[in-house]
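Handout for the seminar on molecular recognition.
Each group receives one record of this type.
Step one: identify the two inputs.
Step two: read the structure output and locate the region that could contact iron/sulfur cluster.
Step three: write two sentences on what you found, then compare them with the reference statements printed after the record.
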Amino acid sequence: MGEKIPTVEEQAGSEEVRYRKLYESDGRIYTRKISGFYQNIRRYTGLPLIVGFLLMPWLVIDDRPAMLFDLPARKFHILWMTFWPQDGMLLAWLLIIAAFTLFTVTVLVGRVWCGFTCPQTVWTLMFIWAEHFCEGDRNKMMKLDKQAWSLEKVLRKGSKHFLWILIAFITGATFVGYFTPIRELLIGFWPSIADSGFVTFSVSPVAAFWTLFFTFMTYMNAGWLREQVCKYMCPYARFQSVMYDTDTLAVHYDKARGESRGPRKPNEDYKAAGKGDCIDCSWCVQVCPVDIDIRDGLQYDCINCGLCVDACNQVMDKMGYERGLIRYTSEDELEHGKTKFLRPRLFGYVAAVIVMISTFVYTVETREPVSVDVIRDRGARMYRLSGDQVQNVYTVKINNMDRHAHSYDIAVEGDADFRIRGYRAMQLEEGEIFTMPVRVSVPKDQLESSKNTIYIIVTAKGDKTITAREKTSFIGPHVEE
Ligand code: SF4
Ligand code: SF4
């Protein structure tokens, strides 16, 4: 499959047609080890993220996991809060806020999310570390791949894949630990010998399947696919260009300073020879995790990781040139010498994010930990009691979404003397849903209409702040008779 590129000849009427592949793997990328400012930032941002990811399922708040997406019980425990299916809107809001924050950051400093904090980047960094640890730096890796199979090659490759699988399994198990209690999950993977003599595992088949699935996905994504994920699978790479403007900070090559590129002799007056500061050593390409040459200009594959900046700065130091031939800068700065940080588009994004976060926090803080649903019993319609009372029957569903048990009172509110009949307070455990019939009556002579609006109110005993109300209608006799 390919995208047809008409050649100059074709445009001129020739039959010759060239094809460019939409998916193209250039084979294994042998990355050169590099240290420097941006590599350190990658390490120091990646490390807390990994530690946070690994520890979160083990953290306990109020005797429950700090982060547990309990799908069978349809409850999401996030820190000290519990979200229910009816809170789905809040979770959607959270995702929208995350997306807008990402847009804002991208407008300001390009794809820093991709280069420093994206799980694909952080895990690939770990896998590359294991690769360098077992196989050595770039040249050693290339040599190892070329040489015939030997004990050394088996040991080096074997230990690399062992480390990759180990990291992938820890990742897979931890991820599943966000959906099922992690202690039980890991204990389930511990082998035991059955009476029959076979090795058995107590882990459930579903948990085992998902753990192995995510182990496999991590191994493939960070071990084998790497830059292919960023280039071909990640949708963010595709639409990032929409967010860039000429003042967005990104990794750029300073063409005016670097060209014309080329090697030079020591002590040569290269400027007099018409050369720029780029010595064409290709270090910037060798360290690039997505194997691109930033000197060709801004490319959608570039994840803004800054490794080429570190590499080029080292070269500049060795050559005794000023640093920053490749640097974080904007197109405007390169062309006109100045980056405009305060711009309307950025203000718009920041304002939108602030409004959304404030609304979200307010909604979460004022969220009632109880909900009530009321359905009028249409079969019963209405009837009189003792000649002067009109009664309607309702099905009332109370959902105690709080993290504690509560006893609830039910009341009714309306424009007449409505009363609840035959109700006793209900004790609901944490997370319990209780459904019951409730009778509401009113003296017939107080009804001014056949259809009246009333409110059913549920309040926790001893804590009047935990309350919920639902509007419903009370049908009277005027129309019916
Ligand atoms: S690392 Fe710097 S000097 Fe070397 S090729 Fe890249 S831009 Fe040129
Ligand atoms: S070109 Fe530079 S900043 Fe972009 S991905 Fe490659 S190394 Fe990272």
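Reference statements: Residues 151-176 form the longest helix (26 residues). The two ends are 75 Å apart (CA to CA).
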